[in-house]
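hey
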């Protein structure tokens, strides 16, 4: 039987993370919502997901995917795919199953090279990770893209630690913005290279599979998953 107070608390937590994330971004950028069309709502393994996509002007694609009303799994994915700067993909997933929480903050090096500013950014992300090393780790399955993940925070928490979980998300997002604003804009040719690196990663994600990607593929089929990923989730076709 579902504990309605916990379910309601989880829903409010997801809504707060979305509100905080958008407020933080709106303080520094203009956000333009993009119509997701057929991908605005998805049904995956009996879980209904609501999806929103934004252009972060001058930065790239923002994906918000949530299932806050699902009794099986309440979750939020908050993913920024940069196209205009030499920055990693920033992916954040929060999963709520009753009072249990898993959260995952990952950075993927979808760049042609790492300069000193990029490496100093990674050092700041590692410092955030170290700050919360006492939280229990969430075990992850090994996958082909692990070599691209320079920094990954994967933790398990309880309902009593929701403020900590939110604070880790906010710290990571603020650090991303701080570095983005210090980073030079890419030239047109550099932008094309970055876009191609991202597109190659996205297509390989579908072709070779991934932990969560396989769930999409099994439900939607490979071609629909590839279209969803390129059009909406990572926005490669929009940038």
């Amino acid at each position: 039987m579902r504990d309605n107070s916990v379910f309601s608390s989880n829903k409010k937590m997801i809504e707060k993370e979305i509100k905080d994330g958008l407020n933080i971004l709106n303080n520094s950028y203009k956000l333009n919502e993009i119509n997701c069309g057929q991908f605005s709502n998805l049904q995956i393994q009996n879980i209904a997901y609501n999806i929103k996509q934004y252009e972060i002007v001058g930065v790239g694609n923002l994906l918000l995917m949530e299932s806050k009303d699902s009794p099986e799994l309440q979750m939020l994915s908050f993913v920024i795919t940069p196209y205009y700067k030499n920055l990693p993909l920033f992916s954040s997933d929060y999963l709520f199953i009753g009072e249990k929480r898993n959260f995952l903050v990952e950075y993927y090096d979808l760049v042609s090279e790492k300069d000193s500013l990029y490496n100093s950014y990674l050092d700041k992300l590692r410092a955030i990770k170290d700050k919360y090393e006492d939280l229990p780790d969430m075990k992850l399955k090994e996958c082909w893209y692990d070599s691209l993940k320079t920094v990954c925070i994967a933790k398990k928490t309880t309902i009593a630690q929701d403020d900590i979980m939110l604070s880790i998300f906010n710290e990571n997002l603020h650090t991303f913005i701080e570095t983005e604003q210090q980073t030079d804009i890419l030239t047109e040719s550099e932008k094309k290279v970055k876009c191609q690196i991202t597109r190659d990663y996205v297509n390989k994600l579908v072709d070779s599979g991934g932990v969560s990607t396989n769930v999409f593929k099994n439900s939607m089929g490979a071609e629909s998953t590839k279209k969803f990923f390129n059009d909406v989730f990572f926005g490669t076709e929009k940038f």
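The mean pLDDT is 95. Strands lie at 31-34, 41-44, 47-56, 60-66, 74-82, 89-97, 100-108, 149-158.
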